[in-house]
Amino acid sequence: MEYLFDETLISTEIQDLLPSNLKLRPLAKDDFDKGIFSCLEQLSIIGDVSQQKFVERFEELKKAYGYYIIVIEDLDQEKIVGLGTLFVEMKFLRNFGKAGHIEDIVVHVSQRRMNLGKRIIEQLIHLGKELGCYKIILNCNEKNIPFYEKCGLTLKDVQMTLYNEVRKEDLGVENFAPPKTDQ
């Protein structure tokens, strides 16, 4: 199986906290048919995704520095039931330091309330430490702040966002509406 990154970076201590039928591992090149998009569509618009596009993106991520996507697979069902991403940003600041950005945390609705989200966050924080990140950043909705605080993160600063004009044809979806802003 071809993984996005070296599986030895996965914490055995965190894996041991999961039920025996769940495996925490890097994203694999053959995960297309394992339900990854049924998880991701619970976060946002997916668009037109084919296996070829998935493999092309996987290969781009593998060649680029700093992308660490982890999944939790239900081995009994051979389905992905949760995932998250750590992106490592190379900086000039802090003596050429690295900052980790956590993104796209999701647990399939059928698997919630089992601490899987917490395990994903713990693993991504573990990866950040192993990779030498001096800080880990995560942006979230206000309603999710208590969950992330339980995972050891603290509220700091404010996020600013600008959504560029995107044509629905570019996303491969019907009835696209950009996210609403507060103003």
Automatic annotation (TrEMBL):
This is Glucosamine 6-phosphate N-acetyltransferase. CDD domains: NAT_SF. Residues 22-178 form the N-acetyltransferase domain. Pathway: Nucleotide-sugar biosynthesis; UDP-N-acetyl-alpha-D-glucosamine biosynthesis; N-acetyl-alpha-D-glucosamine 1-phosphate from alpha-D-glucosamine 6-phosphate (route I): step 1/2. Belongs to the acetyltransferase family. GNA1 subfamily. Keywords: Acyltransferase, Transferase. Gene3D superfamilies: 3.40.630.30. GO terms for molecular function: glucosamine 6-phosphate N-acetyltransferase activity. InterPro entries: Acyl_CoA_acyltransferase, GNAT_dom, GNPNAT1-like. Its EC number is 2.3.1.4. It is an enzyme of class 2 (transferase). Pfam families: Acetyltransf_1. The lineage of its organism: Eukaryota, Fungi, Fungi incertae sedis, Mucoromycota, Glomeromycotina. It catalyses: D-glucosamine 6-phosphate + acetyl-CoA = N-acetyl-D-glucosamine 6-phosphate + CoA + H(+).
